[in-house]
Every structure is written in C-alpha cells, then in structure tokens.
Amino acid sequence: MKMPFSYATAVLYIVTIITGGTSWYAAKLQLTDVSPVISLIYRFGCASGLLLLIAAISREKLTYTWRDHLSFASLGACGFAVAFLLIYKAAALITTGLIALTYSLVILFNSVNTTLFLRQSTSRTVLVGALVGLAGIILVFSPEFFNNEWNWVGFGYAISATLAFSFANISAVQLQRKGITVLPMTGISMGYGAIFLLSYALLTKQTFGFDPSPVYVASLCYLILFPSVIGYTTYFAVVGRLGAERGAYTMLLVPLVALAISSVTEGYRPTIWAIIGTMMTLSGNYWVLTTKYQPVTKTNV
After folding, report:
1. Does residue 176 lie in a domain region?
2. What stretches pass through the bilayer (predicted)?
3. Domain assignment of residue 297, yes or no
4. Average per-residue pLDDT in the chain?
5. pLDDT tens digits, 10-36
6. What angle, rounded to 10 degrees, do the helices at 272-289 and 124-140 form?
C-alpha cells in the first residue's frame, strides 16, 4: 500500500543532509601530512567498531551467511573504499565543486541501476525532479565549471566514484530486502571498507602516520561520529524507506549545505545563478519527496 512521506523519514533525510554537508569542511581539515588513505582507515575502522558495539548493545543480529558477507563486502568496497579513493584522485585534478556536481549524478545512476538490478521501474516524477534538481546544481556550480580548465581524467575519476557509490546503494537495498537492519549492515560493510583501504595502503606502501594536532584529531572525531556513524546509518535508512533513486536526492542538497558552510568559513558569496539554482534544487526535492511512494522495506531505525 502506498504511504505518504512520513515525519520519521523526513528527520532521517534532514540528518543525512546535515551530516553529509558538514563532512566536506571536516574532510578538508584532514589534509595534513597524514595520507588521506590512512585517515580514511582511521575514520571507517573506528566508525565500524562503534556501529557494531551499538548493534551488540541493542541485541541486533550479528551472525550472517557467507553470501550475506559477500554483499557486505560489495557494499564496503564500493561505498567506503573505491568511491573515496577515486574522489581523492579526482580532487587532485578538479575542484571539489565540480566533484560535488558530478556526484549528484548518482540520482540518475540509481534510477538506471534500480531498473537493471532490482527490476523496479522509476516514475516520471522522479526523473523530472532529478532533471530539475541537477539543472539547479549546474547553475550553482556554473562559475567553477566555466572558470576552471576542464580535466577529463579528473572527471573520469569523479564519474567512476559516483558509479561505485550507486552500486553500494543497490547492495544496501538488497540487504535490507533480506531483513538485515541498518546498524549491523553499515557497521560490517564499513569494516570491510576499512580492510580494503588497509590492503590498498599496504600494496602502495603508504606511510602510517598520525597528526596529534587539535584540528586533525577534532575533525577526525567529528567525521567518525557524525558523517560516518550517524550520517551513513540515516542515509541507508532513507534508501531502505524510499528506494535507491529517491534516497539519492540527499546528494543534491549536501553540496548546498557545504556551500553554506563555505560562505561562513571561506568567504564564499553566492551569485544570482547560485540562488536560482538552489531554489530549483529545493523544488525538485520537494516535488519528488511529497508525492506518494511505495516503501522498499521496513527499516528498523
């Protein structure tokens, strides 16, 4: 039976956007002498441990079949290892604004992958809302697009990261359809992601270091607790409730939160096109999320 967009889902949606939007600035503070890959291992390793501890205290099921663990590993590899490694490679070649713009394409990727892997059609409302929202994001980041030299390699990394994250979304939906709840799913998958990152660090002979400065430690703790433990849990809960294509609409609002923070911390001043684009993106979100939808699964969050 079709249900309206609920208050609980709205709260999860808003928390996901806020934690995701604030993660960009916190991640920027992590760029010290410590390799980004090593920082990611600290972040996801600690977050995985916290999530599994909370799951154990909550008496969540923590024993699963080897097939379930293959799905956990797929989610961890795509969503927490490959996607982040490719984002860092892209960041060395193009601006974070262009990466955020490219990452917004996850909405379209999720629509296609939902049809291919979940045999679930996407409504016209979702597609039209996606196009309106994406057009708005393009307007917001148009100055960066036109004022910077285009780099196809960087764009390729960003697109590949977005595709990997989309595959992670599909794995999350498939796991929740099996009745696996969000806390253990996120904790175990994040643990696999940290293992994949550790393997990559060892293969590429990364230097394992740590920056004891207050800024690095504080930003790392923030990234562990809010975007990782809370943000990814609420995001996958939204995906479970709304579906992969609708849940991905958070990716349109996350860059806007990041820009709002940038206006305070880095002196960013929005143009008239950025204001119009923001209104278009918000309208696209409102249009899609206030229409009736068929819940994918019952999510225990």
Report:
1. yes
2. 7-27, 39-58, 70-88, 94-118, 125-146, 152-170, 182-203, 215-235, 247-265, 271-289
3. no
4. 84
5. 899 899 999 988 887 888 888 889 999
6. 160
